[in-house]
Automatic annotation (TrEMBL), chains A, B:
Catalytic reaction(s) noted: L-alanine + 2-oxoglutarate = pyruvate + L-glutamate
Protein name (database record): alanine transaminase
GO CC terms of this entry: cytoplasm
Signal peptide: none
Length: 436, 436
């Protein structure tokens, strides 16, 4: 039996096709003789020409400045400003990195002090993106867990943030709040009202806000809409809009483009003290610079083809088909999961993942204990071995005591997703029978 | 007046052309429809096909494993083994990274312990590659300086290593020795005998050896030859060959390829304890993975076209012309510099840089003091402003008290280099006149 792997948030691995426009421009940047070719659309050639003239030595093979190619920082800041309905954005606040995982790490380095008497704490959701927790651990910082409310579709509640912060007193010095919106692994998308409350809380408690918004392009749940922390902060006006320190993260890895392997990310730093900005520049320069290909991909994300451009029809058709797939999966996958006995799934609003809850029979839980595994990890192992479906267990992301979940990536072609759910259902029913 | 910048070690920025074979394969990997085109040689298409089939999802846009694409780890380890005349190399010991600067940092993370009573020390040459010293500082480690012998063409002497290590006792816990061979900024290439002595010293003192060999492809000085630390270590036989811990670094940034912007590096870890290797894997996974384009570039470096391949003639012509330029510059630039009064330059054996000494008039030194600058930094500023030549001052790399140097990159087309030296000479003579 062939294994179907829906454990990664890696669109191309999952079967999505790269966008033709993106790949044509990158190919032409690598081998500019192609610009002569009549096989490439005019706008592709033009774009490749202007990107190359923004590279030192006219080559993607030259180092860039440590914060990135200035032309691309400008494109990205214009993109942010358009996305946020005109809220200004400064190119000097944009730092390009080798993927947003690396930006997260570098911003954490700004925040974490190892010489202090208490370790540095960062408020981090449960469940949450695992690599962020590893990054904190690597730096000797402490995860301050706050729980998302599963019954409310994994919403974030300020009361819970307050509790978590209070509980951390004396254990660590909590300086920052990490938010993933749209959520990973939850598929939740925060409302403007929620974001306002979170910002007000951060302001009161003088917390640095880290807004991980890498899934901003994938918000297709009914009635949900992506609003950035930057936009809400700006619209809340002074004094908050001038004082709350915010880092907002985005990536070429997710969304329609899905170019994980190129390692392109950026972070926008807002309201930081000029001395801290200078220190940030030093920290970001430890890698020399971000990979040029990833930087170029972010420029193409910021400026996709527009109606009237020769590349537009193909681009529109490709992105619309990805969008149709996501709209379909976001509505349909939770529905199917909710119809399997012993599984419940919150509605999905955005991002790439669903995180259904498993009600495992007591006998299965005991069995897992005997083999020394977390019950949902053991479940995943069985699912892989018996049904050839690879998913990740809830224990990796964190969950409330005694509950179990799995994470599935829905950025997956519909036919593949159908097969996954069919196999999962059969396996699960069989599993329930065996252990009850 | 146009500025000529020979301050970077960035071949494409300096005017070198990318290798056609490399760029064609990369373009075809980005846009596989090109494989259909009749514009690309057959071997390029074949190579693109096999590289793509080594990528998950058949796309350069997928994440790879944290240590790299296995197929490329194998290519690299075969390359190492061929380079070293058959000394075996294991793919599991190869870690692909976002440039060798990043590998240096990650290996340092393995070595630096912040919880200890004394800071971790690393023996580091004076003069030395600056970003390595910054990396040490970022990690809270201590630079333990050892001086290269300028009169001996910047050779490394074990007696001096012993002195430096001794002097560090009580100040830090020195655990590693960092060696750059071929040298940056010195242009020195170590002899097999020197390497043997250094290895024996490392073994006696139980030091971890970090061999930065990113300039291994550029060794063209008369009578000099690149021999890797790995090869010498292996040929020294047991017990040393099985015990001395060695990390050897290489990069896609330098050599004929010169693809700095792609961020591709690798490190080979030799004789590490299996537990440390597992810890290394964890540390290297903090970035998720290295950029795929950089990894592909390293594969192409490891397996260039061979005689008989359709791409070979162009490849051979391009690399031969780069080689001719390097051979010419390596011999001719020190000669010209030595003919300028008040400048002396050691013979150049390899690498990308010359590091001539400036004998500055006392009045110029006083003048620099008045403006609060290091004399050679001030000299560089004048050279840039008055002659439009950008070089770097010796003070950035470290030098013995009271001496002054500049660093020039010689991976620069001959006509450009001629203009640089002409301007430098005129400026320098004028400068001497003004201050004496
Ligand atoms: C929430 C979140 N943030 C950041 C990342 C890192 O993405 P990248 O480093 O590829 O930009 C991921 C990857 O899955 C993610 O899910
Ligand atoms: C000696 C040495 N090591 C490492 C590097 C880093 O190169 P990269 O990170 O581009 O591979 C350089 C760059 O100039 C260097 O001179």
């Amino acid at each position: 039996m062939d294994v179907i792997d829906v454990s990664w948030g890696d669109p191309h691995r999952g079967g999505l096709k790269p966008l033709t426009f993106v790949r044509q421009v990158l190919a032409a940047c690598f081998y500019p003789e192609l610009v002569q070719s009549d096989k490439l659309p005019v706008d592709v050639k033009q774009r490749a020409r202007s990107l190359l003239s923004a590279c030192d030595g006219g080559s993607v093979g030259s180092y860039t400045l440590s914060d990135g190619i200035s032309y691309i920082q400008c494109s990205v800041s214009n993109f942010i400003s358009r996305r946020d309905g005109g809220v200004p954005s400064s190119p000097e606040n944009i730092f390009m990195t080798s993927g947003s995982q690396r930006s997260l790490m570098l911003v954490l380095k700004l925040l974490v002090h190892n010489q202090a008497s208490l370790p540095t704490g960062v408020l981090t959701a449960v469940p949450s993106y695992t690599a962020f927790k590893s990054a904190l651990q690597t730096l000797g910082a402490t995860v301050v867990p706050y729980y998302l409310d599963e019954e409310q579709g994994w919403a974030m509640e300020v009361e819970e943030l307050r509790r978590a912060l209070q509980a951390s007193k004396g254990i660590c010095n909590t300086v920052a709040l990490y938010v993933i919106n749209p959520g990973n692994p939850t598929g939740h998308v925060q409302s403007r009202k929620c974001i306002e409350e979170v910002i007000r809380f951060a302001a009161e408690e003088r917390l640095f806000l880290m807004a991980d918004e890498v899934y901003q392009e994938s918000v297709f749940g009914e009635g949900s809409e992506f609003v950035s922390y930057k936009k809400v902060l700006s619209e809340m006006g002074p004094p908050l809009s001038h004082t709350v320190e915010l880092a907002s993260f985005h990536s070429a890895s997710k969304g329609f483009m899905g170019e994980c392997g190129l390692r392109g990310g950026y972070v926008e730093l807002v309201n930081l003290d000029p001395a801290v900005m200078r220190y940030a520049y030093t920290i970001f320069s430890t890698d020399i610079c971000a990979p040029v290909t990833g930087q170029l991909a972010l420029e193409l994300m910021a400026n996709p083809p527009r109606p009237g451009d020769p590349s537009y029809p193909v681009y529109a058709q490709e992105t619309q088909s990805i969008q149709a797939m996501l709209v379909h999966n976001m509505n349909w996958v939770p529905e199917v999961l909710n119809n399997i006995p012993g599984i419940s799934c919150q509605p999905m609003m955005g991002g790439a993942f669903v995180f259904p809850r498993l009600y495992l029979p007591q006998a299965a839980i005991e069995k897992a204990k005997v083999v020394g595994m977390q019950p949902d990890l053991w479940y995943c192992k069985q699912l892989l071995e018996e049904a050839g479906v690879c998913v990740r267990p809830g224990c990796e992301y964190g969950q409330t005591e005694g509950n179990h979940h799995i994470r599935l990536c829905v950025m997956t072609p519909v036919e593949t997703m159908e097969e996954v759910l069919k196999r999962l259902k059969n396996f699960h029913l069989h599993f329930l029978k065996e252990f009850s």
